[in-house]
Amino acid sequence: xxVMRKALLSLSVLAVIFVCYFMFSSYTGSTESEGNxxxxxxxxxxxxxxxxxxxxxxxxxxYIDFAGEAFPLEQVDVKERLDRELLVNSYxxxxxxxxxxxxxxxFPTIERILAEEGVPDDFKYLAVAExxxxxVKSPAGAKGIWQFMKATGREKGLxxxxxxxxxxxxxxxxxxxxxxxKQLKGQFGSWLFAAAAYNMGGPKLKKTIASQKxxxxxxxxxxxxxxxxxxxxxxxxxxxxxHHNYGFYIQEHEKYQPYSYKEVEVSGxxxxxxxxxxxxxxxxxxxxxxxxxxxxxxxxxKSRRTYKVKVVAD
Length: 314
Fold this sequence. Notes:
The protein contains twelve helices and four strands; from the N terminus they run H-H-E-E-H-H-H-H-H-H-H-H-E-H-H-E. The protein is mainly alpha-helical and about 325 residues long.
């Protein structure tokens, strides 16, 4: 019996020790866990200071519009689609910074032409969405800042041949884009419809509107690219136009400034653009930078058109 009592006493003592140890461990673990979740804003900031980066959701604006047409943000579908585009463009840092920098070079010319042509100023952001304000070529063959296909560009009055491609002439392609957008606005009655048609094409949009009995852009169910397109334009407008609100701090001297140049009229042939550039006191490279629409090393100019060539200012 004495042996049994001693055994029971030992087990009881061990049980008490185990329970105390478990309770102590649980208490300290809970305390540490609570310590990992800062309870005050100052504690949160102190914790954030040690992180490699702090990533937060983008705060959606209470109101947003494009070309004067307000977005129905009370609709959950519209709100979440806008949220997506704001997030994508806010956190695509390198691209957004370049868009902000390039806008200082190209927006003054684009804004002037849009105003002269009676097209809403917001459409300058369409050029950003289409090309990042670069004379790029798409896999489908669209080219220039406004991404015209050859047929559409020629239809809107641009010269496109083996020597000249005015889809890459900023002034002429911007006027062509205005002409096209006004045509689409007249056809569909809405600037948002015009923007969608610019992306997917007028005939496809017309067919989609008819089949779905849509009364506004927001009624449409389209391909993914066009569904995102107008929301993307609004997001780029919001971020580039208010970039400080989204954490982009670019100083004025860091932005790309407009080129300083004068224009020389060319009405005849040019045997060598390199020789032409040398006579103007500039390199062949800079001639092409100022005039990306010159795509050959010479100009035969059989039609005797007059071109305004940008050269280095005196």
